[in-house]
Amino acid sequence: MPAPQEVIRRKRDRQVLTEAEIRSFVEGITDGSISEAQIGAFTMSIYLNGMTTPERVALALAMRDSGEVLDWSKSGVEPRTIIDKHSSGGVGDEKVTLLVVPLAAACGLTVPNLSGWGLDYCGGEMDMLASVPGYDGAPSPDKYMKAVLKAGGAISAPTLQLAPADRKIFKVRDVTATVESVALITGSIMSKKLAVNPSGVVICVGSGTGAYMPTVAHARELAESMSTVATGAGIPSVMLLTDLDAVLGTSVGSAVEMVETVDFLTGKHQDPRTRELVIEVTADMLRIGDIAADMDAARKLAAAKLADGSAARHFATMIEALGGPADFVERPEHHLPKANVIAPVYAEAEGYVSAMNAKEVGLALIALGGGRTRPDDPIDLTVGFTDFCQVGDKAGSTKALCTIHARDQAEWDEAARRIRAAITLSATTPKPLGPIVIERIERHP
Hints:
Helix content: 40-55%
CATH class of the largest domain: Alpha Beta
Number of strands: 12
CATH architecture of the largest domain: 3-Layer(aba) Sandwich
Radius of gyration: 21 Å
Strand order of the largest sheet: 1-4-5-12
Mean pLDDT: 95
Oligomer: single chain
Number of domains: 3
Order of helices and strands: HHHHEHEHHEHHEHEHHHHHEEHEEEHEE
Low-confidence stretches: none
Strand content: 5-15%
């Protein structure tokens, strides 16, 4: 095989890499013989020059095979019911995975889910779960599979055993301005999905100011890419193009989104737009997993299991199975860390929320310390925003834009300035947002 710099040079010069070259480079990433600088050069060359479909399939499979692939053959689980879910990322969107996994499990699916940390201005599922004391976000494959079988579904990060190459590439992408590469997003997401050996996947691909894909066309490009790789790996897929032109849900940040997650599952508060997406994602999973015959039946089953508390119980079981508190669902605020300064921010004049730049909200979270600027940076799990206004809300002296959770008053003041700048107010009630699911792309091998 050529030296790593030769592989980088070939891709830099817009040549098509062979499957063997890609696999060799990924093996070097995994065993440490390839440096972070070389990973950064490799990802930048891919960002600038793209990859062909065969290259993307080869990259995803090589990253999958950089570690173990889970074997469910002796678990007693019906293979067709092993269905996974993912999201390409969005401001406030990461909580959807934490809602869908236990809900789908409550409906009869088995959901082994490998998720990730926050990237750039979008949060991550694993940062949310890191705020739960004792939760093991990187368990051994054996411990992880036991948790999945006990709870019906469980969420873990890529580990030294499962998709370890993605763990290294993922963090370098975050700080080398290569997050938005369709080929790299495809490789990252699909390697994690394929490592848990599902019989199908449902993936949300967001577009708008709160997503990595700025337009529906960009989101469609990514969805088609991942769908093609799923087909190349021999499994069916559903890609849901979603509208993330506003913050999804009512909170942004690690610990604060965990509170929103528990409130949603227990029925204390369910943001309508978040609920709409959760039901649609779960319904598609139930349909391709042969639990429900059609979408209407699947939606009814999902809604019923959410209403009767089954999803909350599965979530509690998952938390406990991976080391978290047994009473976490009953008392999340008791266990989660809290910021030093918590106070609402108000608009400077009254008006209706007509638009918001969700990316700027995500950048405000980074400024608070809740996001990363370097791969191994620790983040403050306590900071963020709660009670976030929604498009159509009237904001003013009595209705806050949101509540800011900050480390000190100076950071609160800066976040308040950013939030006010990110939200557009109008004198009249704006047109409501359309359906959160814009389009479906479904493929079967």
